[in-house]
Amino acid sequence: MSELPGMNRDALERFLRENGIEVDGTLLVEMISGGRSNLTYRAYDDTSTWVVRRPPTSGLTPSAHDMAREWAVTDALASTDVPVARTVAFDRDGSALGAPMTVVEFVPGRVVRTREDLDDLTDTQVAGNAAELVRVLAALHAVDPMSVGLEKFGRPDGFVTRQVATWARQWQTVKTRELPDVDRLHRALEAAVPTRSAASIVHGDYRVDNTILDAEDPSSVAAVVDWEMSTLGDPLTDVALMCVYRQPVFDAVLGADAAWTSDRYPSAADLVQQYAVRSGRDVDNWGFYLALANFKLGVIGEGITHRALSGSDTGAGARNAADATQEFIAAGLRALSGSDG
């Protein structure tokens, strides 16, 4: 049996046994997903099933593939109302696969990634799913980091200021052409940073396809996944990113017709209203948060094309992902001017 990219089945089996995890019969491994995110595998024997995750084998951006971060937050949230997979074992130093690796329980259910996946849901189920996604996000933001041992998980003070600076620096690294509106939006964001902001655990990449839904009831989230971007920060950055992901132009970044961009889901305005009611939080300076989320996604789209041009990203539509950048930047400028969102 040929090995999967980034996987060594024998090494994984040794790691499981060394960590007190019994392997019943032959251990089999299959890839669930690969590409730009962390590589994800389903490993199973005659009685148990696990999910194994590790960083990609090339084109690494350490902050975007932080397995220790993903492990810490998933392990900590097990005792809360936020649904997560049960943690099993963590190879922090990468001794088994040559890169850090997490092993968690396999959570059965359905993953809704594309509009074709969404076709299996009724309109009532889609509405219920949206409401549940908002409920879970509000539950995450309500968790007291200190109560679950995550008080040192990030630096919430000055978080949005650093976000503006981080994505401006990233633009200088990945830009494939000059776009004056990017610098214009950067300067406008710097001038509009809120003087006060809340702090909570944030997911950093929250939308429907980063959850596992109950197989029978898509209005119930069985587990939130893909925590490698999580930290302590401003909860409204999570909400705004969830809303900005709803824009149809996000399909160009993903290289697919995403379920989350479908007009069957509530509008961004409806989602943020649901969140405000569910969480009890004010959504002051909403235009700033929308603009920051658009800035981030514009830079991400540019970065995907930058990596494709350098030969390190061959995913679907990678060379065209930057086509979305100008539209995200324009949306950010509109949001700051009060004419959008």
Beta-strand residue percentage: 5-15%
User: What is the H/E order?
Assistant: HEEEHEEHHHHEEEEHHHHH
The 3D shape can be described as globular
- Radius of gyration (CA) equals 20 Å
CATH architecture heading of the largest domain: Alpha-Beta Complex
Say which CATH homologous superfamily of the largest domain is assigned: Aminoglycoside phosphotransferase (APH), C-terminal lobe
What percent of the residues sit in helical stretches (DSSP H or I)? 40-55%
CATH class of the largest domain: Alpha Beta
Oligomer: single chain
Number of DSSP E strands: 9
Q: Strands across the major sheet, in which order?
A: 1-2-3-5-4
**Individual helix count:** 11
Task: Note down, in words, how this protein is organized.
The protein has 341 residues and is of the alpha+beta class. Helix content is 40%, strand content 12%. It has eleven helices and nine strands. It has a five-stranded antiparallel beta sheet with strand order 1-2-3-5-4, sandwiched between helices. Strands 6-9 form a two-stranded antiparallel ribbon. The chain has a two-stranded antiparallel ribbon with strand order 7-8. Helix 5 runs parallel beside helix 10, helix 6 runs antiparallel to helix 10 and helix 6 runs parallel beside helix 11. It starts with 8 loop residues before the first helix and ends with a helix. About 1% of the residues have low confidence.
Write the layout of secondary structure elements.
Elements (H helix, E strand, L loop, with lengths): L8 H10 L9 E6 L5 E6 L4 E6 L12 H11 L9 E5 L9 E5 L9 H4 L4 H20 L16 H16 L5 H13 L7 E3 L8 E3 L7 E4 L6 E3 L1 H10 L5 H5 L13 H12 L6 H24 L15 H13 L4
Helix pairs in contact: 4-9, 5-6, 5-10, 6-10, 6-11, 7-9, 7-10, 10-11
